[in-house]
Amino acid sequence: MSGKVTSVVFVGVGGQGILLASTIVARAAMLSGHQVKTNEVHGMAQRGGSVIAHVRYGAEVFSPTVPKGTADAFGALEQIEALRYAHYIASDGLAVVNAQSVVPVTVSSGAATYPKDVADRLGRAFKRLVYFDAGERAMELGNIRAANIVLLGALSRGLDLPQEAWVKAIESSVKEKQRDLNLRAFEIGRNIG
Amino acid sequence: MALRELLSGNEAIARGAYEAGVTVATGYPGTPSTEILENVARYKSDIYSEWSPNEKVAFEVAAGASCAGARSIVTMKHVGLNVAADPLMTLSYIGVEGGFVACVADDPGMHSSQNEQDTRQYARFAKIPIFEPADSQEAKDFLMLAMEVSERYQTPVILRSTTRVSHSRSLVELGERKAVQRAIGIEKNPPRFVPIPVWGRAMKQKVTDRLVSMAEEAERSGANRIEVRDKSLGIVTASMAYQYVREVWPEASVLKLGFSYPFPDSLLREFAEGVDRLLIVEELDDFLEEHVKSLGIDCQGREFIPGVGELSVSRLRGSRARMEGREPTALDKKFAEGLPARPPVLCPGCPHRGIFYALGKHDVVVSGDIGCYSLGAFKPLDRMDIILCMGGGVSMAHGFDKAGDRRKVVGIVGDSTFFHSGITGLIDIVYNRGSSTIIVLDNRTTAMTGHQDHPGTGLTLMGDDTRAISIQEVGRACGVGRVSTVNPYDLEETERGIAEELAAEEPSLIVSLAPCPLRERRRVGPVRAIDSDLCKGCKKCLLLGCPAIEFDGDVPKINRHLCGGCGLCEQVCPHDAISSGEGN
After folding, report:
1. Where does the chain cross the membrane (chain A) (predicted)?
2. Chain B partners within 8 Å of A61 (Cβ)
3. Percent of chain B beyond pLDDT 90?
């Protein structure tokens, strides 16, 4: 194998903006001269289900999906989804988890219960954990939908990509009207942890 | 340096069609294939593209274009090829003029499908070539190569993708569009194009002979290559499995197949002779393994490689451990234990919810269909008893009825699937004196696959206005005497409408009409809230299975960021605790 491959996963609930976050990582890696592969979920799984997106970059990448136990960076937009996919992270990987819960219908309908020990489990599941309310930080900018980019900012500290690549990647991935908001959201995240 | 872009496999196939000089492209939406044609539609000044009502029609339109001389593609998911199997089998006989490539995407792991069939079997069945790309660059290159092979041998060709190939992105070098000058117009040559028995028999011979020369081409093709590394283990693989193999067995020699049928037998023999132990790593069926064994070559495969579900680096690491007599390393999933499942659900504000809730009031058999409404099978709605295939909900309802099921039968079909294959079932019910009630969940789009237009929407894939075909008028023209329309956001109207049609002793068609709010990108009405002083905790609202109504043991709350504003919960609440005012 030639050179180290860096693996990133994002997990959450369909509709939380995972795809945009993973696209930005892919573009930032590409702009930094790496070979890049990504994988995303379409179709049925997008309807409010549990979702995962993969990004891998390096000199030579084969599988577009991240092998379990190897993610160098792990971003979760919902906290029980963080636990569901915790086995993806490498032992020294950085996890950034949004302290937010989206109650699944299985809980609302009484078929299952929401675990009471989420924070405790997260602490045990991830050695390097940044755990904060990304939605609340996004609300400082007046838009809760930027939570994904705040989270990405915090996660970017665990990835060896230069600041200017991140900025360019964000600028080329969002609409012009949203650029300023997203760049600020990224900065807020990058200063966390 | 050539321009390189990060493209998904589907975008790359579309780009390949553009660069190969394709002028006609057709398809029917289906995950994971849908984005191929959506991306082809971006080249509208060079390529005519259309969503056809179903895959059989799409296949035939592209086949007609190809027999007239145009380069064409048709796109569909694996189960779509079942619908198009009839024209596929005989197009192999009459052959094509302009290149013809059927781009078919399999779904190992059933991420968004009702079965896990392996399209490679169709290549052998129809005696035509198949190409299997392993990344986006190959997706583009193989489409172009397939187009040339198709023209050289006058045969339809299959390009087989999978969910992971279609929905993974990797870098692709872009090229120019090839100027293809082809005369358009079918030549008068019935022995060539008319497979009545006298000419069809000769065609069968031609198809059989063609396989031999195509196998010779596969032997030499750059799409099949031997990578020599350590010779103690040699692996034959194709498609995405190749990528996993390179990570799990980085030291092994590999025969990577891209032009995988007709089988390149000499290449298989040459590779097998050069290695001590031969392993076949393929996703889904033992397609290659059976063949390699039939050549008398000793190999292993299925005994170590899973044949159910999709492969991955992690699963193949387990296979390697078993081959080497080690215990596979168990993954520590203890943090995921006891977590509540999060299955996909009908979106907040989804109009289908009203129908399923209303159907819950009746003791009926509900035979369903493929689409978002498949999610109506989950609790708490739990109002779908059986699903077979697109359009199957209509005809199976008639079957239940004729079998003498004592309960009334309701068949569910979507708007897009009504045009796909629901109409013939409806005709059958009328013709053969059935009495089923058919409900068309008309949300004015093909929603599950990402909102594609269809014959009922009044818009074409290329963005032109067209005549919107009325489902109600089609129903009447099929001879249904009782055709009605209900607003599924009005529970009282919906429940009454269903009750009336169930009581009728003749076939009926109910069109549940409300556009998909996800496509409209707006709320149906004002955000609702629950007044906790009025709420008695009866949990009736939870029976709607709405993801915006959250409950974890206390009183239900409505998440205002998620609420779709449909107001169904307000209608369901017996204590008037839900309203569009400010709750608490």
Report:
1. none
2. 170
3. 91
Locate the chain A residue with the closest alpha carbon to B114: A44
pLDDT of residue B61 exceeding 50:
yes
CA–CA dist B199, B197 (Å, integer): 5
> ipTM of the assembly?
0.95
Both tokens of B145, joined, read: 């190569």
* Among B71, B68, B69, B35, residue whose Cα is nearest residue B51: B35
Q: Is B443 on the interface with A (CB under 8 A)?
A: no
> Does one domain contain both B507 and B546?
no
Number of domains into which chain B is organized: 4
Hey, are the CB atoms on B169 and A121 less than 8 Å from each other?
no
Q: Which residue has the tokens 């180290």?
A: A4
d(CA B365, CA B386): 9
Asked if pLDDT for residue B506 goes beyond 60, the answer is yes
The answer as to whether B346 is a domain residue is no
Percent of chain B with pLDDT over 70: 99
Pairwise CA distance, residues B38 & B446, whole Å: 13
Strand bridging mode B100-106 / B72-77:
parallel
**Is the pLDDT reported for residue A1 higher than 50?**
no
Give Cα separations from B44 to A6, B26, B50 (angstroms).
Answer: 38, 13, 10
**pLDDT for the residue numbered B2:** 74
Domain residues for the domain of B316 are 225-323
Share of chain A above pLDDT 90, in %: 79
**B250: chain A residues, CB-CB within 8 Å:** 1
- What domains are defined for chain A? 6-190 (3.40.920.10)
Band of the pLDDT at A45, cuts 50, 70, 90? low
Same structural domain, B93 and B204:
yes
Structure token pair of residue A142: 């007046």
